[in-house]
Write a structure and sequence with these properties.
With 401 residues, the chain is mainly α. The chain contains 15 helices and no strands. Keywords: Membrane, Transmembrane, Transmembrane helix.
Amino acid sequence: MGFSLANVLAGIISFLAAAISSAGGVGGGSLYVPILNIVAGLSLKTATAFSMFMVTGGTLSNVLYTMSLRGQAGPDGHPPLIDYDIAVVSQPSLLLGASVGVVCNVMFPEWLITALFSVFLASATVKTYGTGMRQWRAETAAVRTTLEGGSASAGDGTEEALLGQKRAGGLQHRWVDMLVLVAIWLFFFSIHLFIGGDGAKGVFDIRPCGVAYWLITLAQIPIAVVFTAYIIAHHKRKSHAQNSQVSDQSISVKSKLEALPVYAFPAAALLTGVMSGLFGIGGGLLLNPVLLQIGVPPKTASSTTMFMVLFCASMSMVQFIILGVDGIVTALVYAVTCFVASIVGLVVIEGAIRRSGRVSLVVFMVAAVLALSAVVIACSGAVRVWVQYTGGQYMGFKLPC
């Protein structure tokens, strides 16, 4: 696990992948695993463990940058880009879905997982690109109206500001949301620490598929339901109390998201978590396009996705540290590389947005990462399936135990 030429080359490629992923608001796990496996020559299990360190490093710098430089509410009342309401109400379902997806990953054959993942990524690429084009045309129309002397809408930036005004209930509310997220993290982390997950065994060596294993595993369902129900009720009360303080214009801009059923975000997060666990990657690559399709503005979708992925990836990373993953020093070096690269990617995309005035660039970056991931996953998956086929391995469905 030393700093060989292969590791250096893998680090350079990972730096570029982290910068691109951060600019698009995704974790980058779908790119890190093939890079570590093919370029650095690590086993798939070790590459998966290392990727959790890398995703945590990249998302941590992204979240810190967002909260410190562009996420703080300033004198002009500009709200934080991270939508804490979406994060809090979605996180339990996202973690629950990931656990369900892991069970499906064990049962489904490799060829089916590869095919489903490739189809999903291709479909998400097309849809996200279409969203970006609609945003681009809207921005072009706004610029044209401004040049013609009309009163143009402020565009996506204003929409994001107004979106946050109703939700920016002050620093106190954000700290409450953070405490709730930490509590959720601790509950699910404790469960995974007992039974294991993401390629790691539990600390108490509970027999897989035994009575204790299934009791602890199934306990995630009521925990997720209780947390989600409480959060929805709490934010309904908070939203009702704040309605009188929000301008009519803000309510008008926010009406599309407010019209969604209360279960829209938890349901989307549950589906995203299942796919994340099934395909063996972090949820950012899947969650960001879902939020964009729901109607969340691009920069808010990107920042909120990275915030949520930080909690998921850090859970697996801490578990690997406690269990003593091999090559932890190398893994931490990769994580620091992604930490720095993530900041570089954010600075570059922010500069491009300021110069062009087009927030749609974020959407196009998401589409680019999706397309690149589709190619990488399809090719690497096809190679693994071919090796299994030629080696005479069983390629059907398996039992979860």
